[in-house]
Fold each of these.
Amino acid sequence: MSEPLLAIRDLQLDFRTGEGWARVVDGVSLTIQVGETLGLVGESGCGKSVTALSISRLLPTPPARYAGGSIQVQGRDILTASSKELRTVRGGVVSYVFQEPGASLNPVFRVGNQILEALQLHQPTRAHDDEVVRLLKLVGIPAPESRARDYPHQLSGGMQQRVMIAMALASEPKLLVADEPTTALDVTIQAQILELLLDLKRRMGMAVLLITHNLGIVGDLADRIAVMYAGQVVEEAPARELLQNPRHPYTQALMNSVPELGHPADRLRTIPGTVPAPGQWPTGCRFAPRCPVARPDCATHPPALLAIQSNHQVRCPYWNS
Amino acid sequence: MVEVLDSPYIRTARAKGLSEGAVLFKHGLRNALIPVVTILGMDVAFLLGGVLFVESAFALLGIGLLAVQSVFNLDVPMIMGTVLFSAVIVVGANLIVDLMYRWIDPRIKSAH
């Protein structure tokens, strides 16, 4: 197999807290091949966003600290890269679409100029207004000529997110990191934005890292899915395999908690308990205190990530029972 | 400024691949300017107050000294003149500040 576009190996990331360093990402390994879509799923605070920001080292250090592991983008080591090298990776190879588009666009610049800025940095030969209009048209913004002169606050949330996507695409990245791109949008707009991402990915042949806490949306979009819990990957498999044969109790619990339309339940199913805070993770299996099928030794023996098939990994020794 | 540099659009600017200087001066500074300009406008009023003392103490010729001398001489038209003139300057400074708000932050324009 050719060199992967992105290879994160055994990443360990700490954050400084009042009482010293707390580990928030503990030994995460992920790879993304050229053109592939990986869904990264997990509850709030499981470390998925900070893992994604690490890909182009966007976390301020301090308070963050890389304690171990490596990140390689097209074979380049990100954690040891110079700031000049980083700038060619940021935007040039890896682009981001963040949640809350309203806060992620600079309020004092016209949206057209913000897109132009990305072009000037990475595609200087195409840095002109016609290209900005073409990009806005590409992401489905009506009347792009006049919208380009708008400020972010003059656009709706869905339009703002389209502008963010246009800005991310301007540099023709190899990897688009979409960090909960639809969390701040209402449901009908969510579907439009996700369809747009899927369509653009097919047309431009980008790889996508889609981060979400909604298992429902990754199934349609992702080739593979990785599930994170408390700073670790607990299960990883091709999307279809994972959704049909979830092996880790946490993945199963997540899937059970997705409410189904047209099947009114008396109560919404939840996972009892809460995600443990970073630095206060249980010694054994981190999911054990909330696990419905936990056994006595789960609380003492940290489980390893087991390959149960060539492309299916589970962090639970009792996956088969 | 510190608050501005924590905001998501600064992260967006970094994620684009902008140099740290461009992030700070282009994307950071303009957003941090609003409180600075507000204080500048208020400072004009304090400046005019301070001028009364400074010009008297150091015998500098200016509106401060003129105002103080007209008070001591009970020159009522001159007192009225200096006070009115100061008022116009303060109002003018505030007008300039308000116009600068609109230039600095386009969101303020649509609020009116």
Amino acid sequence: MTVWWIGDIVLLVVVVPVVIYLLNGVLSEARGIVPSVNRIAAAAAAGSKDLDAAPLLLTTGDQVKQTVEGVAGYGGSLDVILDDAEKE
Amino acid sequence: MPAPGVVLLITVVAIVLVLVYYLVSTIVALRQITAGLDEAIGSVVEIIEKSAPVEEIVTAINRDLDAGVDLLEGLLVKKAGMRDAVGLVEGLYPGAAAAGFRNFPESKTTKAPRISEVYTKGTLTLARLGREAPIAAASPAGGAVLRDVTRGSLMARALYPEARQTRPERLERSPIIGTDAPVQYEPSESPGVRGAPGTNAAIAEQERNDTEGEPGADASSV
């Protein structure tokens, strides 16, 4: 009978606190990850939204090409109407 | 059942309840983490898909711009010569001559002449047109001046000799006006109607001047 009482005391004083401590630690860490994951998801969504303008680079590339072609045309005309520099 | 057995049974049941509470809470938290990671992964996949063609497009833009720079530098060096070209760049962007031209390594060692003392503003404007045409909106001159009659300059013509010096070396000075002017003009009674001698307006003004002060002048008007 005494051994039963000793077992009950050990169970209540040692095992139960240890189990509660460990489980509480796991739960608090899991709950601490949730806000971080939400922030990561929000940042990724914002980054994806920022890249919505990336297709406009196609228009920019076309306009740059047309501008350079225009500059090349002017350059060709200047090459024709202006004399070259004299060789030193 | 003995009392220690009852206490043991109650304790075990309590431990199981605690385990259930914490494990269920942990499962809920892990499910939230999974949902957040799924959302983040979806956004990251979108980022990867949207940024995939960026490198190719930017590379093409840089290639086109490099071609434009090569063209303008080559044209400038060809037409102005290396020494004057470096001087023009130095005159437009002080300190830029040290960097030199990309395709002309010898430009870094070329001594830049004081180009602003050699060429007129018109010549520098022409050079600025060639140098800054793609970004003329940001030009210090206030934008492209090509075909702008209000800001164009013909001073570059003075650089070239002509057989007959038709242009005066010094233009006439502007007339001096005011109370200290050497030539004083009397104010007209009818501004803007100053006609040449012999015209009707001049004759009428002469008649008005002649009748002023005469006794009959006031009577006739009455």
